[in-house]
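Issue: copy button drops trailing tokens. Both records pasted manually instead:
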Amino acid sequence: MRFLIILLFIISSYSVALAIEFKTAVTPLPTEVIAAACHYALTFPVPNHSIQAVWVIFDRGHDVHDLYSDAAILAFARRFRLALLLHGHCPGKAAEDRMDMNMDPSKGLGRALFTTLDQFARATGHHELSRTKLIFLGFSGAGPLCARLVGFAPDRALAAILSAPGHYEPRIRAGATALPSSPPPC
């Protein structure tokens, strides 16, 4: 039994080591509301095979960031031939962004994401990155961003995983007097 556990550990360590990571950055255009370059990391769990989709993980803190290198996530990506893309924090430059990302992909993050995929396609020889389907994973404020990315690029969206989606306090629309204090009954 002890031998089997050691063997499984060695095999899992070896399989994680097969993954190859690349990094790049995209500089915002002057008309975009991004304050500085966006940084990205891309991992190919099975580097010498074409990929079926890219799982885009928006970095929103340690828990979400750690998914990018989690052994179970890498095994899942390996099984389904997914590349993993970690989208670093790209603070917005508008005052209302409060140094957080602007969650409207049409204002810079959408172009930066697809520019990144094109850069990685050229750098890695995985030309399918420029056209493959995308799985978006967003926690908190990145949840609405992922939902908007589905509308921004519906031909590229395979799925969107929205975890605790929300971004700042909800605004009361004109004419409304208050927000509901509890959800309506089912």
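Record 2 (pasted manually too):
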Amino acid sequence: MDGPVIGDILHKLSCGEKLNRYPARLRAKDGTWRLYDTDGTLLPHDQCPMAVALKENRPVRGAEAIAERSDGTRIPFIPYPTPLHDAGGKLIGAINMLVNITECKQAENRQKLLIDQLNHRVKNTLATVEIDTLAAHDLGLPIQGQMIGVLGHQYMSDARLCRQPGLD
């Protein structure tokens, strides 16, 4: 395709409207969607995966981006733009599939939170054991019994935390 390409969606699926929350239309000139890179920076339409697929006449894979709806909510997605060719091999357009990865990103965030909490608890437990071991040594107490008591108390505290509602 020669020259700058500004296109309209010619065919759409109803599931696309669920993603948009309004009838599908995408025109670079009216800015219906705002696209962002995964780091949150604005992604100009001429640099989005579909534009790259059309400019370079190749499928684009492995990209992620964030679409902003007209109501301001943002949806992370993986695009699969693929050029279309006529029988002679001439580029005549492209097709794109956007996979909503919101649930995956939410799961990643929950996992990170739980790992951060685990790391914090491990550090606290080790610090407690170290302090109690030093105190037991200074007082001439048997260290083995003191450590078992500290670790048992920490285990009971962790067990109560795990039973709290809302921590899936």
